[in-house]
Design a protein that fits this description.
With 189 residues, this protein is of the alpha+beta class. It has helices spanning 2-14, 27-38, 46-50, 100-109, 115-130, 144-148, 166-169, 171-182; strands at 54-56, 63-74, 80-90, 94-96, 112-113, 134-143, 157-165. The strands form two sheets. It has a five-stranded mixed β-sheet with strand order 5-2-3-6-7.
Length: 189
């Protein structure tokens, strides 16, 4: 954390600021704590997070957790992107504890990311863990690097998806998932 604080002091000086003025004195410490919190996904292991929350069941219909709010940091500009993730799988003998899916989304979101990779990481992990009949992940994000700089498009949303197994091969299964996430969808903001 000390090296982050030192870097923030250097950055403030580069902008012509006095890091010792009243409003900035604790800024390096705050920024270091903030990045430590926002990037805590690097210090977590997804298998440890799951713990023993895998349950043997004879259920093979879709399990869907939608509207999972997340925030992440764009690896290109270190600016936030935030939005909602929708995660589904078709169990093959095992289901995951409900709270674990939002926790997994947070784990992968709390790293320097691009939305495309984050979407795929969530899907790949669930596919590897559960060996289900299929996994589907759709992520909708608002990227502040696009809203605040560059093209400055405040309402542009990015949608990414990763589909494995029956969600990829079976159009009806994919359609059911997409209809379920759009039915009664809440506004992102």
């Amino acid at each position: 954390m000390e090296s982050i604080q030192h870097s923030v002091v250097q950055m403030l000086r580069a902008f012509g600021e006095n890091p010792n003025r009243k409003g900035l004195r604790r800024t390096p410490e705050r920024v270091a704590r903030m990045y430590t919190e926002l990037l805590d996904g690097y210090r977590q292991d997804p298998y440890t997070l799951i713990n023993d929350a895998l349950y043997e069941v004879s259920y093979d219909e879709m399990v869907l957790v939608r509207d999972i709010e997340f925030y992440s940091l764009c690896e290109h500009h270190l600016l936030p992107f935030l939005g909602r993730a929708h995660v589904a799988y078709l169990p093959k003998g095992r289901v995951l504890g409900l709270s674990k899916i939002p926790r997994l989304v947070d784990l992968f979101a709390h790293r320097l990311q691009v939305q495309e990779r984050m979407t795929r990481q969530i899907a790949e992990f669930l596919d590897e863990l559960l060996h289900p009949l299929g996994v589907a992940v759709v992520v909708e994000g608002l990227h502040l690097c696009t809203a605040m700089r560059g093209v400055k498009k405040h309402d542009a949303r990015m949608i990414t998806s990763a589909m494995f197994g029956l969600f990829r091969r079976n159009i009806a299964t994919r359609q059911e998932f997409l209809e379920n996430i759009s039915r009664g969808a809440s506004s992102m903001f």
